Amino acid sequence: MTNVILIFIFIMSIIAFFVMGYDKSQARKQGQRISERTLWTFALLGGGIGAYIGMQMFRHKTKHTNFRVGFLMLMILYAFLIFYILTTDSSIIA
User: Fold this and answer.
1) Helical H runs in the chain?
2) Which of 14, 25, 33, 48 is the most buried (most CB within 10 A)?
């Protein structure tokens, strides 16, 4: 079960990363944007790490305090969750 959680967080982080990049690209082209609610949904449902990295790498939503602080907090939360899972479940490491 813990493997499923780790894989889910990994996949959601990748999706959130690319969604942030796509939204930044659309913002530059003045195209169809992704809603802030959708960005938050991906971040909350496991993609906090990817959303934060994407925000920093693409310099997208960095002026919005709620994104800066919120995505950072989610990244820390998911990083601690991953650390906890990896240190308490010896079946993953072996």
Assistant:
1) 2-29, 36-42, 48-58, 65-88, 90-93
2) 48
